[in-house]
């Protein structure tokens, strides 16, 4: 049997990162390649106690079918948590629980994009989102990243073009893969442009609560007053990713269509995960919980940065993130990046080649992504030393 | 903001059934409308004990990211369970865990269908599947159901047409919504036609283990020797639907593409659900467990059939299922079906109007679907009496 695949899925390759994740099972590999949260931050005891209590008091609530939009108690708790510093749920908004925020990328592009429609993204950006957009027929238009967010001239050139993009995909806080935070000025300017050209924004904020330096910056969603911004809030990085729970917030007309997409995909998100998270949010002093996480990420990030300063070649550059999980390293021209990454793996250190994150992964690229949340301190010290030695070879 | 939706999602309406499910929250309504398994069959104590034990011994295995294809231990346990009577996993097959079998409908049609491509379905068929196919651009071609499965002449006419369909969607056991079981002869004939015209079959088997009458019939998948059949096995009806776990089995080349679709959708299925189910399958005498379920379903089905015989008008017809959860009732021409269903709801009994299950829901239809797994015995007796009275009005 010779299978003929649809046009929209044909061009999407298996994620380079998830292939690297499989390699992580090699216990000898020091992986800076993944994007896993630090497992020592998982609130195991609390989740266990809550789960047990739910089984004792209302087991059917987690075992029977639920509704597509999500468990009411979880939605309420999540909205309260997400609204504690700013208004991300507007009067005109709908809210839907999804099985991880990856589903938000898939459902939004499925509902909005015909084949050949444009989606604007940061260049580089999160590979999983780019693949979701492509798998729904979208054509990616990457906008260069600068130290404070995307280049505004390039953005306006695209928005004012003949073919109006369907939406702009942004990760304003400690972006994946660069670790860059978009400044308030740029968030405002981007929103103004989106409004001027009436193009939607998908604001992805998986890392916002993992800030360990400098002050929080308002989300673009909080600036919105006409339903232009869809907001993706993940609980993977602040509770646990294996539970696969996120929340999609956006104009109710748009959310109604995305609810149909979810109905035809997984009907509803795992009911146990929603119930346990609802209770966790309600019973936990989240500020204390987040401070603990932030301290872990800060320590790991700073250790990695210090070691890089000691070990990496001085003609190598890297970002200094205010939070999140990633550092973006750019090699000098004298070093061939793909060759460097290959040699690193041979020396048992995994990083992700930067070209994987671009709208066109065949473009020449001198950068790679390093993750600091997953490795131990010992692995950070040893792995950075190995990478540093390879730069000096 | 005026949202412009993609062509493929525009025509898909919110599921009529899921709207009815919301109505079920009205405690006065007797619902024969849903498709929920009987909650008294959920193995609560076992699931609780296993869940607790996993939290105690290996919490990170359920809290950290997993791999897209699914948890190895669950896949192994599931394959062993599904293979106990027949060979559904062939040498050339791949296996992927999905978040409910609804995802299999979505991923397969996403990977195979361009806009306007044909998908053949039983007429009537499972609404969630039909919507998933439509949401990926497929055009449905319904084949009339007969007492022993679809009409073969109609099927061959479609398969031999100018536009070759991408696949044939079938629920051979106790079909949703009709309760009809496709005979072995028809399964063989359908497979022979699929082979002759080289068209894939998606065999959906959510209810197979809920057989309480007559002997099991081999799956079409077990007859396949060249990778033409994709098999959807759900654990929603035999363990618990809120956990959202199913298994997709099909040719490895096809599964590799569907893995990409899942990667860009929810990355992987909830890890807790997979781990708990793996242990449940390994530790449980599944034949004993299934016998218990079958006895519950048999009792409820027989009670409903007996009450219908007593209460329904003699010019009314219905199917007698060998298992599953549904009975398909056809009203005489003198009764207007949509009007009847509306009056039933006014009298606090919910059933699903049959037209919802057709490739074209505007076609005139005299049938409705009744579910016997969710209501209590008292509700069955009372609800059937109310419906009966309405027939005699």
From TrEMBL, chains A, B:
<comment type="subunit">
    <text>Homodimer.</text>
</comment>
<keyword id="KW-0663">Pyridoxal phosphate</keyword>
<comment type="similarity">
    <text>Belongs to the class-I pyridoxal-phosphate-dependent aminotransferase family.</text>
</comment>
<feature type="domain" description="Aminotransferase class I/classII large">
    <location>
        <begin position="29"/>
        <end position="381"/>
    </location>
</feature>
<dbReference type="GO" id="GO:0030170">
    <property type="term" value="F:pyridoxal phosphate binding"/>
</dbReference>
<dbReference type="InterPro" id="IPR050859">
    <property type="entry name" value="Class-I_PLP-dep_aminotransf"/>
</dbReference>
<dbReference type="InterPro" id="IPR015422">
    <property type="entry name" value="PyrdxlP-dep_Trfase_small"/>
</dbReference>
<keyword id="KW-0032">Aminotransferase</keyword>
<dbReference type="Pfam" id="PF00155">
    <property type="entry name" value="Aminotran_1_2"/>
</dbReference>
<keyword id="KW-0808">Transferase</keyword>
<dbReference type="GO" id="GO:1901605">
    <property type="term" value="P:alpha-amino acid metabolic process"/>
</dbReference>
<protein>
    <submittedName>
        <fullName>Aminotransferase, class I/II</fullName>
        <ecNumber>2.6.1.-</ecNumber>
    </submittedName>
</protein>
<dbReference type="InterPro" id="IPR015421">
    <property type="entry name" value="PyrdxlP-dep_Trfase_major"/>
</dbReference>
<dbReference type="InterPro" id="IPR004839">
    <property type="entry name" value="Aminotransferase_I/II_large"/>
</dbReference>
<dbReference type="InterPro" id="IPR015424">
    <property type="entry name" value="PyrdxlP-dep_Trfase"/>
</dbReference>
<dbReference type="GO" id="GO:0008483">
    <property type="term" value="F:transaminase activity"/>
</dbReference>
């Amino acid at each position: 049997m010779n299978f003929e695949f649809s046009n929209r899925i044909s061009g999407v390759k298996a994620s380079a990162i998830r292939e690297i994740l499989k390699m992580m099972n090699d216990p000898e590999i020091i992986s800076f390649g993944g994007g896993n949260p630090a497992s020592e931050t998982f609130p195991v005891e609390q989740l266990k106690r809550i789960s047990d209590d739910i089984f004792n008091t209302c087991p059917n609530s987690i075992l029977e079918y639920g509704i597509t939009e999500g468990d009411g108690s979880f939605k309420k708790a999540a909205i309260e948590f997400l609204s504690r510093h700013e208004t991300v749920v507007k009067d005109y908004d709908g809210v839907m629980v999804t099985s991880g925020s990856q589903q938000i990328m898939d459902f939004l592009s499925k509902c909005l994009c015909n084949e050949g429609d444009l989606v604007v993204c940061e260049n580089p950006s999160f590979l999983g989102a780019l693949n979701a957009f492509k798998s729904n027929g979208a054509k990616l238009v990457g906008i260069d990243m600068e130290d404070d967010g995307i280049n505004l001239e390039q953005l306006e050139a695209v928005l004012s073009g003949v073919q109006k993009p369907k939406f702009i995909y942004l990760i304003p806080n400690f972006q994946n893969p660069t670790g860059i935070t978009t400044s308030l000025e740029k968030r405002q300017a981007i929103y103004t442009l989106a409004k001027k050209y009436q193009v939607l924004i998908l604001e992805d904020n998986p890392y916002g609560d993992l800030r360990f330096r400098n002050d929080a910056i308002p989300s673009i969603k909080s600036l919105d007053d006409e339903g232009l911004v869809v907001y993706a809030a993940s609980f993977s990085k602040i509770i646990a990713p294996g539970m696969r729970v996120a929340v999609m917030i956006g104009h109710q007309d748009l959310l109604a269509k995305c609810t149909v997409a979810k109905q035809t995909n997984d009907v509803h998100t795992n009911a146990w995960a929603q119930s346990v998270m609802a209770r966790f949010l309600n019973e936990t002093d989240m500020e204390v919980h987040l401070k603990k996480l932030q301290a872990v990420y800060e320590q790991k990030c700073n250790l990695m940065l210090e070691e890089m300063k000691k070990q990496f070649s001085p003609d190598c550059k890297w970002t200094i993130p205010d939070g999140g999980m990633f550092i973006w390293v750019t090699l000098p021209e004298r070093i061939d990046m793909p060759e460097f990454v290959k040699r690193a793996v041979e020396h048992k250190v995994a990083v992700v080649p930067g070209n994987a994150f671009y709208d066109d992964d065949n473009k020449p690229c001198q950068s790679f992504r390093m993750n600091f949340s997953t490795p131990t301190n010992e692995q950070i010290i040893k792995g950075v030393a190995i990478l540093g030695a390879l730069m000096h070879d």
